[in-house]
Amino acid sequence: MFRFSSFLLISLFAFLAVSCSEKPEDAGAYRASLQLDEASAQALMTSGIRYAGRLPAGATIQTRYEARFDADYAETAAEHRIDYFYRSPDDRVFMVISRDARSLHSRRLATGIELIPGDSLSARPLAYAEHFRTWAMAPDELDRKAGELFLLMKAGADLSPFYPENSGDEEYIEFPNAEVLFDTQTRSWVRDEPHPLDTLRELRNQ
Questions:
Q1: Which one of 37, 83, 167, 204 is at 20 to 30 Å from 13 when CA atoms are compared?
Q2: Rounded to an integer, what distance in angstroms lies between the CA atom of residue 165 and that of residue 181?
Q3: DSSP secondary structure letter of residue 73
Q4: Are 17 and 162 contacting, i.e. CB atoms less than 8 angstroms apart?
Q5: Domain with 135 in it
Q6: How far is 176 from 178, CA to CA, in rounded Å?
Q7: For residue range 117-166, what is the model confidence (pLDDT) as tens digits?
Q8: CB under 8 Å to 136, separation ≥6 — which residues?
Q9: What is the Cα–Cα distance from 203 to 98, expressed in whole angstroms?
Q10: Count of structural domains within the chain
Q11: 1 in a structural domain
Q12: For residue 96, what are the β-bridge partners?
């Protein structure tokens, strides 16, 4: 019996999911370099990095907007760039940001973000969600896969075929997965069920 590889099946899914409007190769039209000037890109990064970036030492989800962490977040923002961008007629922003992975080889990873801006692009978003974080991969591979995921995200398509438990030997999305999801209330990634180590830490801190 003829069998498709995981890559072919996922590519076929991506093509069908956007075939009514856009094809994977159309992602190039949404490159941030074509859509945003430098000031707007910097303002958007300032807005999103408080959630997409790592927490500075001493910061918590509740305190991450305090001014004492501004320098830390500015440094983290400088490590990222916006690769893809789209602003919908109803004022929703979709973007993919990426950064170098901590790796011995040249690898990058990306985050797919949807937000509703505040009073300005740099202000705290009225709403914020991360639809995916990718595995670290070679830059060219990431650019292609992030572009596919971006088109699906902005179209409101189901991304679950690209989750690690569904994508077979082809790596796309690391989060969300069967255990980790994005909580739009705290604007952070959380475990669907408490992890034993988390429970142990809580007990030790009581």
A1: 83
A2: 14
A3: H
A4: no
A5: 6-204
A6: 7
A7: 999 999 999 999 999 999 999 999 999 999 999 999 999 999 999 999 99
A8: 101, 103, 107, 108, 109
A9: 36
A10: 1
A11: no
A12: 84, 112
Amino acid at 201: R
Q: Report the alpha-carbon distance of residue 190 to residue 206 in Å, rounded.
A: 21
Residue in the structure block whose two tokens are 């969600």 = 129
pLDDT tens, residue by residue, 75-97: 999 999 999 999 999 999 999 99
3-state secondary structure 114-126: EEECCCCCCCCCC
Q: How far apart (Å, rounded) are the C-alpha atoms in residues 176 and 162?
A: 10
Is residue 40 domain-resident? yes
At 150, the amino acid letter reads F
- Residue 57 within a domain: yes
Collapsing DSSP to helix, strand or coil, 159 comes out as coil
Query: CA 47 → CA 77, 100, 118, 120, 127, distances in Å?
Result: 10, 20, 9, 9, 11
